[in-house]
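Pilot study result, target chain (393 residues):
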Amino acid sequence: MSVRVLYLHDSKRIGGAERALLTLATSIKQMAVEPLVVWRLADDTAQWLRSGGVRVLQANIPPWCHGFAQPFLPFFLRRLGRSIKPEEIDLVHVNNYRLAPIGRAVARWAGVPCICHVRETIGPGKIEQYRLASSADSLIAVAEAVGQALVHGGLPSDRITVIRSGIAMLDPPTRTERAALRSRLGIAAEAPVLGIVGHILRHKGYDDLIHAIALIREKAPAILCVIVGGAPRARYLHKLRQLAKDLRIESRLIWVGVQQDVAPILHAIDLFVLPSHTEGLPITILEAMAAGQPVVATTVGGIPELVRHGETGLLVPPKDPQRLAEAILALLHGQTSARAMGTAGRALVATSFTVEGEARETALLYQRILNARPGRDSFKETTPGGPQAITPI
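Predicted structure:
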């Protein structure tokens, strides 16, 4: 018997959380789950989901900010009701904790449980603002650190399950293909190249990276940095460009904007950097490790669960450009150890952060929640390999 899950997510841009949802929705179909994804736009992403056999409902989910969305909820529920009946839904899965109260309203309309994904480290303030204590029957934390933050914020540990995000592994390019990728970006074959992928926002630590590159340039004058991502805050992007100009490193930065497929760029660089001030479990680091790249990142959120210092990369404190520069130089000058870290990182992703693993554990969580409800049919035999225990944090 299949589990019918309504996935809720609302965003105007594609980032790690969005890519994680798309991956889960398409892969979990193999675990006897029927996904229905509510998506804002009738765009290429919606068409891609449909081509993979995933039902898509186009609708704008009202935003939640201290109850602002409440007047619009009846209209949204009416829109849902035109496309799907309440009895066609077994679970509501909210992909972003900021929509947890909306998810609860939909779950009540359908008479089903609500699960909320928490993909970043949040404190008591946001837990209260988005009513996580009352909105979700169960919460999925993408990392142990994220789960512990929820517990410290007052949520009971038996309602939290850690399920780490997974990604698909791709074959690395040949040397010829890598050279062609660099040529497309206007990068010389021998140039040392850093890469960062992520929305250009202050908490991603772009200021720190630009300051670090200015320090690095003294010992590695040919250094380049490829920056992949959109800039939701135009003023912040202007500030970064001005900072690079003031530090005389504007020619060292290659701004490529939003890319639908980041894998080619990740294969063209020598080292991935993510100097975030706050994180959950960054999909971009997983993608870089899957591409065989060593990583320099900060000791925040779930990053240390991915980047094992000295094994798959190097960790530095946040907001410390000097330490960031030192770690980058250490890997650029220690090419043998950098390659070994890249190989170890790829192996770690292949064994512990797979799409199949995330889908299986998520489907088992669905089963556990539904089986706990009185009067429900058992879902215990729906996933390959039979039921497995999921231990809350």
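One observation from the pilot: Residues 379-393 have pLDDT under 50 and may be disordered. A full batch analysis is planned for the follow-on phase.
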